[in-house]
Specification:
Number of domains: 2
CATH topology of the largest domain: Endonuclease, Chain A
Number of strands: 10
CATH architecture of the largest domain: 2-Layer Sandwich
Structural class: alpha+beta
Strand content: 15-25%
CATH superfamily of the largest domain: Endonuclease Chain A
Distance between the termini: 57 Å
Oligomer: single chain
Number of helices: 10
Largest sheet: 7 strands, mixed
CATH class of the largest domain: Alpha Beta
Strand order of the largest sheet: 4-10-9-8-5-6-7
């Protein structure tokens, strides 16, 4: 492994750049003094002593009492194990902090959150946040889910949403999908599990798809507001505004009548 790759790996495990660089250089020697490491790593000797102290506290370096003072690195296997343990402890601590926040959030924070959730229109640009919101809405559907997306998006998203949609169908939710005609396997062949449900139906229109949206129980929608930007997900508009939802539902129903 190259030195840069070794340093990058150590940084991912939690070390700073200087700590990773000093530890990586010390691994090359059975033991070495600060002057040698300073010359080899091109790091000021004063910084070497400071970093060595940090590495000692992490268990990655041992000090050898001699004249001059020498240092030796813990084997890389042991070092990685110690760093992983530290990461695991950090994760457990963060998990506890998150649980405490959820459990002990003051009521006024909850009210502010609920008020924000009742906005008629809002835009979500983060892919992670979009996926999380979709999962939440999919789990809450009671009567119907109408989807209209381009073939590439439908094929990819259903790979992840299939379990949610199967559960919805079992609850008696009607699912309708409109997507583009395309070459290759039909949707029904890609996801045959959905074919067993009478409440599931898919229809096709000539590309390009005129609207990319999801309609939840005819009361809430999410809609892609523009094409993908440089291959990245475009912002999604979410709304529970009754008049706006009514327009999108009417547009979808008209598309459904004309789709094959």
């Amino acid at each position: 492994m190259k030195e840069d790759e070794c340093i990058d790996g150590l940084r991912q495990l939690g070390l700073t750049f200087l700590q990773a660089k000093v530890y990586a250089h010390l691994l090359r020697f059975e033991k070495a003094e600060a002057k040698t490491i300073s010359i080899e790593s091109n790091i000021a000797r004063a910084d070497i002593y400071r970093v060595m102290s940090n590495l000692e506290s992490l268990g990655l370096v041992e000090k050898i009492i001699s004249t001059p003072l020498m240092y030796q690195a813990a084997p890389i296997e042991e070092g990685c194990r110690l760093l992983l343990q530290s990461k695991q402890q950090e994760y457990l601590s963060l998990k506890k902090t998150a649980a405490d926040l959820v459990r002990n959030t003051p009521e006024y924070f909850e009210r502010m959150s609920n008020e924000a959730g009742n906005q008629d229109f809002f835009v979500v640009s983060s892919l992670k946040r979009v996926i999380e919101r979709i999962k939440i809405e999919d789990s809450k559907i009671q009567n119907s889910l109408d989807l209209s997306f381009d073939w590439k998006s439908i094929k990819a998203s259903e790979f992840y949403q299939l379990p949610f949609h199967e559960k919805a169908l079992k609850r008696g939710v009607r699912i309708r999908i409109i997507t583009e005609r395309h070459e290759g396997k039909e949707f029904e062949n890609l996801y045959p599990a959905l074919n067993h449900y009478d409440l599931f139906e898919i229809r096709y229109v000539d590309p390009p798809i005129p609207i990319r949206c999801a309609i939840y129980d005819k009361r809430k929608i999410n809609m892609s507001v523009q094409s993908r930007l440089n291959g990245k997900i475009a912002p999604f508009l979410w709304s529970s505004n009754p008049e706006f939802v009514k327009v999108i539902v009417s547009f979808f129903d008209e598309m459904w009548k004309n789709a094959k």
